[in-house]
Amino acid sequence: MEGVKAAFRQAAALAAGKAITLFARFVTAPRALWQGIEPTHAQRVYFANHSSNGDFVLIWTVLPAALRARTRPVAALDYWLKSPLRAFIGREMFNAVLIERRPEARTEDPVAQMAAALDEGSSLILFPEGGRNTGEAPLLPFKSGLYHLARLRPNVDLVPVWISNLNHVMPKGKVVPVPLICTLTFGAALRLDPNESKEAFLSRASASLLALSGMEAA
Amino acid sequence: MNGAPHLALLLGGVAGILVLATLIGQVLRARLDPQGTNPVIENLNARIAAWWGMVALLSIAFLAGRAGVILLFALLSFAALREFLSLTVKHAADHWSLAAGFFVILPLQYWLIWIDWYGLYSVFVPVYAFLLLPVVSALHGTTRHFLVRVAETQWALMICVFCISHVPALLTLQIPGFEGRNVMLIAWLIFVVQLSDVLQYVWGKLVGRHKVAPNLSPSKTWEGLVGGTLSASLIGASLWWMTPFTLTQAAGMCLVITTMGFFGGLVMSAIKRDKGVKDWGHMIAGHGGFIDRLDSVIFAAPIFFHLTRYWYSAV
């Protein structure tokens, strides 16, 4: 009986995943521009700007299906476990690595969780700004998680992904999306240099992401 | 719809042209570019392949009748509006007015055409949307770039919803002696305007020298313009027996719609230049976006609609 239930949940998650990518295509007609790297099977940590909860759906949608199956978003536990529906979307559909943002409530180290997911062979989608950017600045200062992960697993490629226009499609707090075309620009991979400081690395990563923001027009 | 024999003939003719174009494209590739590295030949073949898809889609809509045609152009409006508004100036304060453009104004406009309420669908976007949408934006906060934001949104709605909706609106005209054949107005309009686009491209590629607007579009030449519009008008006029027009009237109508079509390409190119993009979108391989393909029809359709309505329609 448990097996049947699990299989049913899995099938529902698969169907819902298909439906949500179809919806994302209908609303945003997303286009991937592979500027600095090709969509190959290599293990990667995709890190992107974060302005909407649709962000990882879009990255997920434009990844080729074979890569999509092995790519897990890193998401906030407090947000995604708030209701059974969100939990289903976060856990079953996207197979998210759920991390606790509030240090005082942590039972597990988020960076260790991400490293464990990498060790299982998954690629990750990460939003180093920590929360959704709702202001005028194009990019918020990065949290240190990306650096600590790069230090723990120095041989994994870190790929910047700039997502354009999505902040207008679904601003924080709005329920009706405005259909606008979104472009996802995948830049050249970077890695932590052995002697690089945390600040230097994070500002280099941030700059490499921001540099992609003007490229979709060209 | 009972334009069936003429429609079948016209679509058959288009299929013949596409077969010929496909052959020419393949021969050019085989002769000049077996590796597939020449961008002009590759783009030509991509365009021809996309034409097959577009003609197939249009044929299916014609087969499905009035509902099919209205639905197809509503979806084209949606895709075009999505492309246009992706490039305009906007702010979080515009969220509800933009959403209303997609989910209220667009469906209402096509519903008004479905129920044939000419008095309202001809003024709905230029009067009611024009006056009411800025109110929604004004009530939601910031006044920064307010005029630019509401003006660009209104332009998007005029181009993508109002103008495009005048293609299916042709079905509502009541022309004595032409009953049940209105679908031919649409087929003929699109055929002539798109043929003019294609022939302008062909003439331009073959003998084009003098640029019409060098700072706007490097591909628009006087030779292409004159050769394309005249040859398309000639072919369009020779099909006058499919239309409610006489031979001379059809020729005049052709000159008007091919010229408007050219203007459409020109104005939409200027907007692309202003916004720093090469194409409106990426959904139609070889052509760019939906607006790239529709720009000429967008400018020709409302004028064609009103000329036909004024001189030929009974109501």
Explain what this protein looks like in three dimensions.
The complex is a heterodimer of chains A (218) and B (315). Chain A is built from 9 helices and 7 strands; from the N terminus they run H-E-E-H-H-E-H-H-E-H-E-H-E-H-E-H. By secondary structure, chain A is α/β, with parallel strands linked by helices. The longest helix of chain A is centred in the first third of the chain and has 27 residues. The mean pLDDT of chain A is 89. The longest helix of chain B has 29 residues. The model of chain B has no long low-confidence stretch (mean pLDDT 94). Chain B has 11 helices and no strands. The interface between A and B is medium-sized, with 13 and 20 residues.
Quaternary structure annotation:
heterodimer
Element order of chain B: H for helix, E for strand? HHHHHHHHHHH
Biggest sheet details of chain B: none
Poorly predicted residue ranges of chain A: none
Judged by helices, strands and strand pairing, the structural class of chain B is mainly alpha
In round numbers, the mean pLDDT of chain A is: 89
Shape assignment of chain A: globular
Instruction: Output the helix-strand order of chain A.
Output: HEEHHEHHEHEHEHEH
Terminal Cα span of chain A = 56 Å
Rg of chain B, Cα atoms, Å? 20 Å
Principal-axes geometry of chain B comes out as globular
Secondary structure: number of strands of chain A: 7
User: Cα distance, first to last residue of chain B?
Assistant: 19 Å
